[in-house]
């Protein structure tokens, strides 16, 4: 983090790398105006779920009663694990419904909608590794080396909001440039 904005959001410089692990989403037609989640996600009410919120946000963008949808979500990514599972699910909903509903919104507009749901949703709309700045919405696609990553989940969920509120969090790292960020860290 390189600073904090007056609105409370943090200014970031970070790299996003994708991993080969994902949740599964299935979409089913519903009557116009009906948006629902099928099944249960422990600890997440349907109205609070990012997949439902994303569908409703996109439906509101259409300016008319959007086609309905039911979304079945199968979680594989750990909730509260810091790997962007909810954000990637929200991005998938935005991209998929843009196509299914025939909206033809450009990627930049979908990413801007996604930013309303979470700072890392735009990178998942982009769909590839990227260097990010701002709150995470200013993206430059990057081809990072792809070493093998191991994801370990200790069974503990951590709220991103709580992490960003922690007083011991460093908020004044020196600003760098993408050129100053090593694209290949295997030699370290």
How many beta-strand elements?
7
Strand proportion = 15-25%
Neighbour order of strands in the largest sheet: 1-2-6-7
Global geometry: globular
Broad structural category: alpha+beta
Low-confidence stretches: 184-188
Mean pLDDT: 84
Largest sheet data:
4 strands, antiparallel
Please give the alpha-carbon distance between the first and last residues: 22 Å
Instruction: Compute the CA-based radius of gyration.
Output: 18 Å
Q: Helix count?
A: 5
Provide the succession of SSEs. Answer: EEEEHEHHHEEH
Helical amount among residues, as a percent range?
Answer: 25-40%
Word description of this protein:
The protein contains 5 helices and 7 strands; from the N terminus they run ββββαβαααββα. Helix 1 packs parallel to helix 2 and helix 2 (85-100) packs across helix 3 (107-115). The two termini are 22 Å apart. The chain has a 4-stranded antiparallel beta sheet. A 3-stranded mixed beta sheet has the order 3-5-4, with helices on one face. Helices cover 26% and strands 19% of the residues. The chain has helices at 50-61, 85-100, 107-115, 121-126, 160-165, and strands at 3-4, 10-16, 24-30, 35-38, 68-74, 130-134, 138-141. A hairpin with a 5-residue loop joins strand 1 and strand 2 (10-16). The protein is α+β, with helices and mostly antiparallel strands and 188 residues long.
């Amino acid at each position: 983090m390189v600073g904090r904005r007056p609105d409370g959001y943090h200014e970031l410089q970070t790299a996003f790398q994708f991993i080969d692990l994902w949740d599964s989403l299935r979409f089913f037609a519903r009557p116009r105006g009906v948006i629902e989640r099928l099944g249960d996600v422990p600890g997440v009410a349907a109205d609070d779920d990012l997949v439902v919120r994303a569908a409703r946000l996109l439906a509101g963008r259409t300016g008319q009663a959007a086609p309905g949808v039911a979304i079945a979500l199968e979680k594989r990514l750990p909730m509260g694990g810091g790997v962007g599972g909810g954000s990637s699910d929200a991005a998938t909903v935005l991209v998929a419904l843009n196509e299914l509903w025939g909206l033809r919104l450009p990627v930049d507009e979908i990413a801007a909608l996604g930013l309303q749901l979470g700072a890392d949703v735009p990178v998942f709309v982009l769909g590839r590794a990227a260097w990010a700045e701002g709150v995470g919405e200013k993206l430059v696609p990057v081809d990072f080396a792809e070493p093998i990553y191991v994801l370990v989940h200790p069974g503990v969920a951590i709220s991103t909001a709580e992490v960003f509120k922690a007083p011991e969090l460093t908020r004044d790292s020196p600003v760098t440039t993408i050129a100053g960020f090593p694209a290949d860290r295997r030699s370290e």
